[in-house]
Design brief:
Layout lengths: L2 E5 L3 H13 L3 E5 L2 H10 L4 E5 L4 H10 L4 E4 L5 E4 L9 E2 L3 H12 L4
Parallel strand pairs: 1-2, 1-3, 3-4
Antiparallel strand pairs: 4-5, 5-6
Length: 113
Protein backbone atom coordinates (compact mmCIF):
# COMPACT_ATOMS: atom_id res chain seq x y z
CA UNK A 1 0.00 0.00 0.00
CA UNK A 2 1.31 3.48 -0.90
CA UNK A 3 1.50 6.30 1.64
CA UNK A 4 0.68 9.94 0.87
CA UNK A 5 1.64 12.81 3.18
CA UNK A 6 -0.97 15.58 2.85
CA UNK A 7 0.02 19.03 4.11
CA UNK A 8 -2.53 21.81 4.44
CA UNK A 9 -3.69 24.25 7.07
CA UNK A 10 -7.35 23.84 6.05
CA UNK A 11 -8.86 20.95 7.96
CA UNK A 12 -11.87 20.56 5.63
CA UNK A 13 -9.67 20.22 2.54
CA UNK A 14 -7.39 17.74 4.33
CA UNK A 15 -10.39 15.64 5.32
CA UNK A 16 -11.70 15.63 1.74
CA UNK A 17 -8.33 14.61 0.31
CA UNK A 18 -7.84 11.99 3.00
CA UNK A 19 -11.23 10.40 2.29
CA UNK A 20 -10.55 10.23 -1.46
CA UNK A 21 -7.12 8.66 -0.93
CA UNK A 22 -8.27 6.16 1.70
CA UNK A 23 -11.21 5.05 -0.45
CA UNK A 24 -8.71 4.33 -3.25
CA UNK A 25 -6.55 2.19 -0.96
CA UNK A 26 -3.82 4.68 -0.07
CA UNK A 27 -2.55 5.30 3.44
CA UNK A 28 -2.96 9.01 4.14
CA UNK A 29 -0.98 10.88 6.77
CA UNK A 30 -2.33 14.38 7.34
CA UNK A 31 -0.32 17.30 8.61
CA UNK A 32 -1.55 20.75 9.58
CA UNK A 33 1.92 22.27 9.78
CA UNK A 34 5.51 21.97 8.70
CA UNK A 35 6.95 20.66 11.96
CA UNK A 36 4.57 17.70 11.94
CA UNK A 37 5.13 17.18 8.20
CA UNK A 38 8.91 17.04 8.66
CA UNK A 39 8.55 14.54 11.51
CA UNK A 40 6.13 12.38 9.52
CA UNK A 41 8.40 12.44 6.48
CA UNK A 42 11.37 11.34 8.58
CA UNK A 43 9.42 8.64 10.48
CA UNK A 44 7.28 6.99 7.80
CA UNK A 45 7.88 5.55 4.37
CA UNK A 46 6.17 8.32 2.39
CA UNK A 47 5.64 7.71 -1.34
CA UNK A 48 4.18 11.11 -2.28
CA UNK A 49 3.74 14.59 -0.78
CA UNK A 50 0.52 16.47 -1.50
CA UNK A 51 0.94 20.05 -0.26
CA UNK A 52 -1.02 23.28 -0.49
CA UNK A 53 0.41 25.96 -2.78
CA UNK A 54 0.78 28.35 0.17
CA UNK A 55 3.92 26.46 1.12
CA UNK A 56 6.88 28.42 -0.18
CA UNK A 57 8.95 26.62 -2.83
CA UNK A 58 11.95 26.63 -0.48
CA UNK A 59 9.90 24.77 2.14
CA UNK A 60 8.83 22.21 -0.45
CA UNK A 61 12.47 21.77 -1.46
CA UNK A 62 13.43 21.24 2.18
CA UNK A 63 10.80 18.50 2.48
CA UNK A 64 12.19 16.78 -0.58
CA UNK A 65 15.68 16.92 0.93
CA UNK A 66 14.40 14.84 3.85
CA UNK A 67 13.07 12.24 1.42
CA UNK A 68 13.17 12.41 -2.37
CA UNK A 69 9.55 11.69 -3.29
CA UNK A 70 7.15 13.12 -5.89
CA UNK A 71 5.32 16.28 -4.90
CA UNK A 72 1.90 17.55 -5.99
CA UNK A 73 0.95 21.13 -5.15
CA UNK A 74 -2.67 22.12 -4.48
CA UNK A 75 -3.80 25.53 -5.62
CA UNK A 76 -6.82 27.55 -4.55
CA UNK A 77 -8.35 27.87 -8.04
CA UNK A 78 -11.07 25.20 -7.78
CA UNK A 79 -8.68 23.12 -5.66
CA UNK A 80 -6.68 22.27 -8.77
CA UNK A 81 -3.73 19.98 -8.30
CA UNK A 82 -0.63 20.66 -10.40
CA UNK A 83 2.41 18.38 -10.50
CA UNK A 84 5.59 20.13 -9.42
CA UNK A 85 7.32 18.50 -12.38
CA UNK A 86 4.86 18.79 -15.28
CA UNK A 87 6.79 16.25 -17.36
CA UNK A 88 6.27 13.54 -14.76
CA UNK A 89 2.46 13.46 -14.78
CA UNK A 90 -0.66 14.98 -16.36
CA UNK A 91 -0.94 18.78 -15.96
CA UNK A 92 -3.88 19.15 -13.60
CA UNK A 93 -6.42 17.31 -11.55
CA UNK A 94 -9.11 18.62 -9.23
CA UNK A 95 -10.62 17.49 -5.98
CA UNK A 96 -13.93 17.93 -7.77
CA UNK A 97 -12.78 15.07 -10.03
CA UNK A 98 -11.40 12.38 -7.68
CA UNK A 99 -10.65 9.99 -10.54
CA UNK A 100 -8.42 12.57 -12.21
CA UNK A 101 -6.64 13.21 -8.91
CA UNK A 102 -6.07 9.48 -8.44
CA UNK A 103 -4.81 9.10 -12.04
CA UNK A 104 -2.32 11.93 -11.44
CA UNK A 105 -1.10 10.28 -8.24
CA UNK A 106 -0.85 6.90 -9.95
CA UNK A 107 1.15 8.43 -12.80
CA UNK A 108 3.63 9.97 -10.37
CA UNK A 109 3.96 6.75 -8.39
CA UNK A 110 3.96 4.44 -11.41
CA UNK A 111 7.69 3.86 -11.69
CA UNK A 112 8.52 4.07 -8.00
CA UNK A 113 8.87 1.05 -5.73
Amino acid sequence: MRTVLCIDEQQARLLKISNVLKAAGYICIVSYGMEHAERSLAMYKIDLILAHGQLRPTVRQELQKIRDVPLLVMHDQADAIAPEDRLAAPNHASLDDPEALLRTIAALLGGRE
